[in-house]
Amino acid sequence: MNDQLPSSIMELVPEGLTPRPGSRQESKSSEMRETILEATLDCLADHGYAHTTNSLVCEQAGISRGAMLHHYRTRQDLIVATIEYAFYKHLSNFSHLVANLGEVDRMNRNSALAIDWHLCLTREYKAYQELQIASRTNAELRKVFQPRARHHDLVWKEELLKVFPEWRQDMRKLELSRRFVRSLLDGMSLNREQWKDPAIEWILLGFLANLMKRVRTDDLAFPEEEELEGFKQAAMTLLPKRTRRTSSRKPRQ
């Protein structure tokens, strides 16, 4: 683990991956845990959550089931560590790459968006998305994923403020902008296999970079809530009312 990273990112490192200096046993244990987590990322990205079993992870990692259970006693223990590890890798890579940007790339070209998009295509982000999607219908996974995802969102915001301090002048603008960017990049990554059109991806990224520059320089603004009342009222009259889904089963006698 890189101890040169900000403390907020280092706090995301799963338990057992930061051995004490000079402790050979802890170093060996840390290496084994990282091997297991890397294998889990591979399995989630390639096979999905439902098919990522302990046996499959052991096979991918090239270890025995006993070695797996020594470090992660249950599948839930493994998944919790993987959630943290996947996000840690995503954010630490983003932090490193953005830190190397020159001022022209950082401010004028908004090159961080291209970096973010590149990282959306990594296996750790695919694994994280797989866990997020699976948590919608799996109550046990949702219980462990959602609190961590909310915490990760706060850490992500904190890191953005460190690398783009100019956004501190308008926190509402930052909040809306980052959610807009996240929605577009996530949508693009989830639909990439269906669209199969890299040229359009770059068009959308370029458009997004220009859009965010205009937002940052106040050439374009998000609407205020009171400005949306007319739009919301008109939309509500057009949208069908949601009806409660009823069961077709006959009541028991």
Q: How is this structure best described in words?
A:
The chain is mostly helical. Helices cover 69% and strands 0% of the residues. It contains twelve helices and no strands. It has helices at residues 7-10, 24-47, 54-61, 65-71, 75-99, 103-108, 112-120, 123-134, 139-163, 171-195, 198-216, 229-238. Helix 5 packs antiparallel against helix 7. The protein is globular and about 60 Å long.
List the secondary-structure elements in sequence, H or E. Answer: HHHHHHHHHHHH
Gyration radius from CA atoms, angstroms: 22 Å
Shape: globular
Number of strands: 0
Binned strand content: under 5%
Distance between the termini: 63 Å
Please mark out the parts with pLDDT under 50 across 5 or more consecutive residues, or reply none: none
Q: In percent, how helical is the residue content?
A: 55-70%
Structural class designation: mainly alpha
Largest sheet: none
What's the overall average pLDDT, rounded? 90
DSSP summary: helix tally: 12
Supply database-style keywords.
253 residues; mainly alpha; 69% helix; globular
Q: Quick gist of this model?
A:
The protein is mainly α. The chain contains twelve helices and no strands.
Give the SSE map.
Blueprint: H1 7-10, H2 24-47, H3 54-61, H4 65-71, H5 75-99, H6 103-108, H7 112-120, H8 123-134, H9 139-163, H10 171-195, H11 198-216, H12 229-238
